[in-house]
Amino acid sequence: MLSSLTRLQRYYLYYTGVFALFVLLLALLERNGMPPRWVGYAFLVFTVTMYATIGVFSRTTDVSEYYVAGRRIPAFFNGMATGADWMSAASFMGLAGTLYLQGFQGLAYVIGWTGGFVLVALLLAPYLRRFGQYTIPDFLCARYGGNTIRLIAVFAAILASFVYVVAQIYGVGVITSRFVSLQFEVGVFVGLAGILVCSFLGGMRAVTWTQVAQYLILIVAYITPVAILSYNVTGVPVPQMVYGQVLEQVTKLEHQLFDAPSELEVRELYRERADLYAQKIMQLPHSLTQERERLSIQINELKSSDVQMREIVALERQRRELPQDPEQARERWEKEMFLAVDRSKPPIHHAEPFPGSSVEERDAQRINFLALIFCLTIGTAALPHVLMRYYTTPTVAQARQSVFWSLLFITILYVTAPAYAVFAKFEVLSNLAGIPIAKLPGWVAAWTKVGLVSIEDINGDGILQFAELALNPDVIVLATPEIAGMPYVVSGLVAAGALAAALSTADGLLLTITSALSHDVYYRVFRPQSSTQFRLVIAKSLLLVVAVFAATVAAQKPGTILSMVAWAFSIAGSAFFPALVLGIFWVRATRAGAIAGMLVGLLLTLYYILRLEFGGYSWLGFDGGRLDPWFHLQSTSAGVFGIAAGFATNIAVSLLTRPSPQAAAFLERIRRPGNQVEGP
Amino acid sequence: MSGISPYWRKTRWLTAWLLVVWVILTFGVSWFARELNEFSFFGFPFGFYFAAQGILLCYLGIIVHYSRRMQALDTEYETEE
User: Fold this and answer.
1) What is the distance of C-alpha B14 from the center of its chain?
2) Does B37 sit within 8 Å of A407, measured CB to CB?
3) Of the residues A321, A379, B42, B46, which has the fewest C-beta atoms closer than 10 A?
4) Where do the Sodium symporter small subunit domain residues begin and end (chain B) (predicted)?
């Protein structure tokens, strides 16, 4: 059987075998008393060493190898690499958690992030491959002509990719600090080293082969814990097949629990708290002084009586931690108020689509669900770091097949994520809700310490109500090994998988940014006469600069970075998708049309996001606070307007301007049959 | 236009109708998820099952079909040109 595989497939089979042996060895060592921290170190060192080895062996000094891996990546492996390139720390850790919190509504991410690959297959990949240059700006420039469009494309590519890469490096910092207890900043720079060993010397070629290796680790790490949990709960280790029954039980439990008197009481208490905060915010700044006085009186009273010092110290700390000024008080209390409002709402039934108490609310949910799918699909089909991968296959036919492999490898993770969410919910509803707080399982305490789980006995009955528990989305995947009572080696495996997901995506993004700068800006615009050797020197140094810069930004722990990633899809979708698709399918699309469409789409998307999230900008002439959402759409779906406006502008301006003379010849070349390809 | 080759005409048709299927699956079926949840499928409510797994399998089907048909079109027309 081994002989029927290609040489590469055999290599990766051996590699997987070695990795499995390594995990087994660690499991044995752990049983014989190796401390968990060492298990974490072993995983970190072992996996990064393997990636580095692949990276060093794939080093290259050839331009085509550096940018497009010499166009020699077979469809199967390109699919695997695209899978790793595509699935980031957010897919690996966040998706299951989002599904846990939002139930059916979270499936918009599953549908959107996979549906986009159909568009890639039908509309983009084969044509990009037949064109056969290096970057997406290359394609737009060849189709429409002129360097203006190249520079706009470079700007949009960097805008969409940079936030994304910072989020990945941030993810690496979180993982290393949690599992091997490195300091966060140190973790970020360890991650930086991990990223650079894969991409610095070998460019796309090295990134591709490490991504394949990273895919294998991340998928094994993702499926193992939930398979074991599924076996414990249902007796079948295939969670994707059997979680339907568990979902049925979850629904039953939800009906029993959600309207229990104690749950209603807790939600009412949260509503009262929200009202209290609302009142305090209304009466600012008076309420802040009042609060301070109240605490001072209490402290003085306590001091005159003979209570323990500990209580006085606690109250004094409370007084010290009061907001400094009304501005800060408003910000902090608003946050508290929204938290309380969230918890006072009746919980969502997991399997129910578009939940809401009235028809209008349900319709708003439905529209947001479909709009989010729309943005994520188009964004997926327009993210440059994914599209670039389809330049690397040997033939056009292989580019088409490789989209199939990509989607298959991605689907394996995406059909597992909802299972994670359902099993976690089952665990919470059947083993946590209604249990005395003193008797909660150990993993709850462990993750409360890290701040990812929080419990508050608001009604003081000593029992945990469902509404009193708050989980951070990331905890679902990370804590599943402990929920199922597995040894620490499984937790280490999950951490290694999350690390692989973050590193592989960061590599792909970094390469996109670097090639946009070195190939499109430096070589194509400024120095077309520079030698190939010098171009590579520029590319490698830029890679280093961008990577260090991204890591420095990530080390600042920018709080909003994770929500900004969702915007990358809207940005990429509205900038690239109309120009690419019209460019391929409509001969009349002109340079002016494409430029106008890209600018209008991009600016409208940015405007909607910024106005909705941050309110007015007096220096730009926008005042009057935050924008009211158009059609109830959240800022993550900003691309709906940007993409529509981009198409409309592109078409309108194209019809008004004269057809480009070179368009017909260009399209004739990329639309002809067979596998002959363009190329340098 | 006179310059449209039969290969490109067929490619366009194939692309267009697969896109229609894709739109119906993605936006049409999802629109009715509440109603579809009335049916049960292997223990799943069908609306939930379709969004979580069924639609992904359909997507794979679309891509496989496209890839096969295009391969056939390529071999059919490559020699003629």
Assistant:
1) 10
2) no
3) A321
4) 6-78
Structure confidence by residue, pLDDT tens digits, A266-298 = 888 888 898 888 888 888 778 888 888 888 888
d(CA A651, CA A141): 18
Work out how many domains chain A is built from and give that number. Answer: 1
Q: Does A247 touch chain B (CB under 8 A)?
A: yes
Q: Kindly tell me the burial class for residue A141, based on how many C-beta atoms sit within 10 Å of its own C-beta (0-12, 13-18, 19 or more).
A: buried
Nearest by CB to residue B63, choosing from A118, A369, A668, is: A118
Q: Structure tokens of A23?
A: 């995990």
Distance CA A117, CA A561 (A): 25
The pLDDT of residue A518 is 86
Subunit contact B63:A675, Cβ cutoff 8 A: no
Q: What does the alpha-carbon distance between residue A439 and residue A647 come to, in Å, rounded to a whole number? A: 59
Q: Please report residues of B whose CB lies closer than 8 A to that of A240.
A: 53
Among the partner residues A240, A370, A674, nearest to B27 by beta-carbon distance: A370
Q: Is A30 a member of any domain?
A: yes
Residue spans of chain A under pLDDT 50: 618, 678-680
Q: Mind telling me how many Å the CA of B15 is from chain A's nearest CA?
A: 6
Q: Which residues of B touch A396 (CB under 8 A)?
A: 74
How many domains is chain B built from?
Answer: 1
pLDDT at B80 over 60: no
Distances (CA, A) of A464 to A102, A340, A445, A473: 21, 17, 13, 19
User: Please, what is the average pLDDT of chain A?
Assistant: 86
Determine the residue type at A81: A
Label residue B1 by pLDDT band (50, 70, 90).
very low
- A10: in domain: yes
Q: Which of A122, A671, A672 sits opposite B18 (nearest CB)?
A: A122
- Separation CA A250–CA A255 (nearest Å): 9
Q: Which domain holds residue A8?
A: 1-34
Tell me the three-class secondary structure of A592-661, residue by residue: HHHHHHHHHHHHHHHHHHHHHHHCCEHHHCECCCCCCCHHHCCHHHCHHHHHHHHHHHHHHHHHHCCCCC
Chain A residues inside the 8 Å CB shell of B52 = 107, 110, 415, 418
Question: Would you say residue A5 lies in a domain?
Answer: yes
Quick check: is B56 in a domain? Answer: yes
- What pLDDT band is residue B2 in, cutting at 50, 70 and 90? very low
- Please report the DSSP string for A42-106 in residue order: HHHHHHHHHHHHHHHHT----HHHHHHGGG---HHHHHHHHHHHH--HIIIIIHHHHHHHHGGGG
Interchain contact A422–B (C-beta under 8 A): no
Domain enclosing residue B37, as ranges:
7-76
Rounded to the nearest 10°, the torsion over CA B59, B60, B64, B67 is 60
Residue A561, Cβ neighbours under 10 Å: how many? Answer: 19
Mutate to test the interface with B, among A105, A107, A230, A415 (most CBs of B within 10 A): A107
The C-alpha of A401 sits at a distance from chain B's nearest C-alpha, in angstroms, of 6
- A26 found inside a domain: yes
Which tens digits make up the pLDDT trace of B6-60? 899 999 999 999 999 999 999 998 888 888 888 888 778 899 999 999 999 999 9
**Cβ neighbours of B69 in A, within 8 Å:** none
Residue reference for tokens 């997987």: A16
